[in-house]
Amino acid sequence: MSSNAGPVRNVVSPMTAAHFLPLSAIRTIGLVGAGSVGKGWAALLLARGYDIAVHDPAADPAQIGAFITQAWPALRRLHIATTEQPDLSRLSFFPDLTTAVAGADLVFENGPELVSAKTDLIARIDAALPADRLILSSSGGIRPSLLQAEAAYPERILVAHPFNPPHLVPLVEIVGGERTDAAATILARDFIAGLGKRPIILKREMVGHLTNRIQAAVLRETFHCVLEDVASPQDIDDALRFGLGVRWALMGGIMTFNLAGGPGGAAHTLDMARRAYADWWADLGDVTLTPEVEERLIEAAKAVEMDRSTQDWIAWRDEGLVDVIALQNERIDKA
Predict the structure, then answer these.
(1) How far, CA to CA in Å, does 88 sit from each of 9, 85, 94, 106, 153?
(2) Which DSSP state fits 323?
(3) Calpha distance 328→330 (Å, rounded)
(4) Model confidence band, residue 334 (pLDDT cutoffs 50, 70, 90)
(5) Please, what sign has the CA dihedral across residues 216, 217, 222, 224?
(6) Strand ranges for 177-277 from DSSP E
(7) 209 burial class (0-12, 13-18, 19+ CB within 10 angstroms)?
(8) Residues of each domain in the chain carrying CATH 3.40.50.720
(9) If you placed Cys at 231, which of 225, 235, 254, 329 could pair as Cys (CB 3.0 to 4.6 Å)?
(10) What is the DSSP letter of 233?
């Protein structure tokens, strides 16, 4: 790991879509923001052989290096990392944002999940980065059109939203804004796929993108059931772990719905359950996050933790995720 203050390259003149830097030429990645998401990207990018330039005023190089080293065995088990240990010399830290990104071939923005903060960061990156290089925001729910608002080259800005922990969970959502070039979207998809991820492209932007909206819908009903004391918090979680989650690890909701109809598929499921689904949807709960409600949800979370520390659960989760992802890779490749 090193700290540098190299020369700043001038921004190149505007490029047409055909002149984005090709995938084969992308070797150095800028990381603006090195919190939990940025560290996850760093581990993954090092595993795939990229050089990384990090800018984060609060970054602790030793702590980031320790995180990557700790994550390495899991990346090796998933055949993403191929070396015994990470080469931390490929990870450089820059106190100045402009210097960090000026030499990058692609930049990930991982700043706070606030429109104003991200728009400002992206505008600063956009001003320093050659115009043929992509800017990928890790935003979990901000529409990319808002992130393009102050950029001179909005056509190369889009969202590449990973899921926690970013170095392990395969899914990445690719979301373009109103002014994103289609070629940038395809290049982003191909780059993310090359990291060993499974990217999906959203055809239009929405607040919360796609997967967080699905998760929010499930959590809203989960929290409603907690508040209505339908079952214990542990049993509510077990309904997902041992019921829906088992199937969802192999297939999505649409395929699950389709298979429920047997040989008749989704049409037969609708014939059997049309009225039932209408009744269930009409009866779904809503949750308003008042202080009292939040306190009950915190109590429910403490109940399912069962006096184990969050760090213990994170380590347990990450170890299990490797097993689940390995099984997914094996089964999906045979589908």
Answers:
(1) 25, 9, 15, 19, 32
(2) H
(3) 5
(4) confident
(5) positive
(6) 198-202
(7) buried
(8) 2-202
(9) 235
(10) H
Positions of CATH 1.10.1040.10 in the chain: 213-334
Residue indicated by tokens 């993108």: 209
For residue 263 the two structure tokens come to 């040989």
**CATH number for the segment(s) 2-202:** 3.40.50.720
Q: Is the pTM of this model over 0.90?
A: yes
Residue 333 pLDDT:
75
Average pLDDT (310-323) is: 96
What CATH superfamily is the domain 213-334?
Answer: N-(1-d-carboxylethyl)-l-norvaline Dehydrogenase; domain 2 (1.10.1040.10)
> Is 139 exposed, middle or buried, given 0-12, 13-18 or 19+ CB atoms closer than 10 A?
buried
Question: Is residue 262 pLDDT above 80, yes or no?
Answer: yes
122/207 Cα distance (integer angstroms): 19
pLDDT-derived band at 236 (thresholds 50, 70, 90) equals very high
Whether 74 contacts 168, CB under 8 Å: yes
37-55 pLDDT per residue, tens: 999 999 999 999 999 999 9
- Token pair belonging to 189: 């998809």
As given in the structure block, the two tokens for residue 200 are: 């999906």
Residue 325: count other Cβ atoms within 10 Å of its Cβ: 20
- Asked if residues 155 and 182 have their Cβ atoms less than 8 Å apart, the reply is no
Query: Do 151 and 118 form a contact (C-beta atoms < 8 A)?
Result: no
Say if residue 73 is preceded by a cis peptide, omega within 30 of 0. Answer: no
Average pLDDT over residues 219-232: 98
Question: Among 153, 149, 108, 120, which residue's Cα sits nearest to residue 12?
Answer: 153
- Compute the Cα dihedral for 58, 64, 66, 70 and give only its sign: positive
- Encoded tokens for 64: 């980031």
Model pLDDT for residues 6-33, shown as the tens digit of each residue? 322 323 334 444 489 999 999 999 999 9
